[in-house]
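Can anyone check this?
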Amino acid sequence: MAQIDQLWKEWRTHGSRKAKDLLLAEYAGLVRHTAQRVAVGLPSHVELGDLVGSGVMGLIKAVETFDPEREVKFETYAGHKIRGAILDELRSLDWVPRSVRQKGRNLQKAYAQLSSELGRTPYDDEVAEHLEMTLVEFEELLSEVAPLTVLSLDEQEGLPGDDGLKLSETIADQQAADALKEIEEDQMRVVLRESIQGLPEKERLVVAMYHFEELNFKEVGRVMGITESRVCQIHSKAMMKLRARVRLQVKK
């Protein structure tokens, strides 16, 4: 720990390139860990090496911009930057077929419309009926759009006029947040937290274990005693509900 602290001091005080390189080497494991976790559920043609490469750029940015006075652990800050860089790369690759994206948009629209009309989260059979499909077809659809929902908590969302707050954002500062933006971000966190707490138990567990305890779908399934594909379905459904709830709440 003393050695790491010394490296940080040399980098921040003197801009030592050697100290920076040693810091990058010290935290390189964060990149592979994050990339492997993001890769779960993605199509096979998405190369892990490409995700790692993007993640390295996020780690470099984290080392260059980290401010210890913010009282946030570097691992937490770096994890956010690494994941953000990886997800930005995935979005630029347009790795999901247009047909799947369209199905995802239709499903999200159904949840949003029904949530608004009913004043609550719709049940599975209500969504299936709205989409004119059977429950079996509905579950197949949830599996098909699962790759899209891996990114759901990191999609830009939020209050009118904000700069694209991400739902999973837990870093209080984005280098230059003004007072109004901080209030908006705090409000969004409250909305998201309440929305997660309002999910059914299984969906809440999947969200907690995948997004906050950093288990992959296979590990979540092992803990819950269900198949990985079932975890994907539950996760997809939970993400659709969360996005619909958040949008409903911020409009009030």
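Reply from J.R.: I decoded it. The domain at 98-250 is CATH 1.20.140 (Butyryl-CoA Dehydrogenase, subunit A; domain 3).
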